[in-house]
Every structure is written in structure tokens, then in C-alpha cells.
Design a protein that fits this description.
Elements (H helix, E strand, L loop, with lengths): L6 E2 L4 E3 L4 E7 L5 E7 L2 E7 L3 E7 L1 E6 L6 E4 L3 E4 L3 E7 L4 E7 L2
Antiparallel strand pairs: 1-3, 2-3, 3-4, 4-11, 5-10, 6-9, 6-11, 7-8, 7-10
Length: 104
């Protein structure tokens, strides 16, 4: 996956003592997204905007707030999270890489 004609932030977004790291991009049409990686562990994120998380490498399991089922996502798959919600993401081994698109 490549992105042309973007603006990128040179300063990383660092969460959970460096176990989750991303960089913000703004596309030519103004759309915003982040590219990141997640080291093994379990992490909870709150969402303001609706998000689409595309897994670009590795795998993870996810429970969206309000749900009780943990679903596994592999490279090439995605999940969506509603606005004003959140999700718990778990990486059991290796590194999971992702693209997060903000939908609203």
C-alpha cells in the first residue's frame, strides 16, 4: 500500500511506553490517517471519530467496546470502530502493522 501526494508529521504518536507507534498523514483531498505498528501486548484505545483499521502486516485480536466477542484479523483484513467508542487490541506475537483511516 502506498500513498502519493501526502503531508506527513515527522513526530511520532507514541503510546504505551513505545509499544504502539504511529505517524499521521494528510492526503491530498484532506483525509487523515495514521500508519503504525503495535508490539505484543493488550491495549485499549478510545475513539472520537469512526475509524477503519486495516491490518497491513501480522495479526491481532480485537474487541470493540460494547461487544463480547474477540475477533482475529490478519494482513489484508480490516475492522471498523464507531465514533465515541473504543476497542481493545491484542497482539500475541510479532509486530502488527496497520493503517487507520478516520471515517468521520
Amino acid at each position: 500500500m502506498t500513498f502519493d501526494n501526502v503531508s506527513a508529521s515527522a513526530v511520532a504518536n507514541v503510546y504505551f511506553d513505545g509499544k504502539v507507534v504511529s505517524h499521521s498523514l494528510t492526503l491530498e483531498d484532506g483525509a487523515k490517517l495514521t500508519l503504525g505498528l503495535i508490539y505484543p501486548g493488550e491495549y485499549h484505545f478510545a475513539t472520537e471519530s469512526a475509524e477503519r483499521m486495516e491490518i497491513t502486516s501480522g495479526q491481532c485480536s480485537v474487541v470493540v467496546d460494547g461487544g463480547d466477542e474477540s475477533l482475529i484479523y490478519f494482513q489484508g483484513e480490516h475492522f471498523e470502530v464507531p465514533a465515541n467508542s473504543g476497542f481493545t487490541i491484542t497482539v500475541a506475537e510479532g509486530i502488527c502493522q496497520y493503517v487507520c483511516r478516520f471515517l468521520s
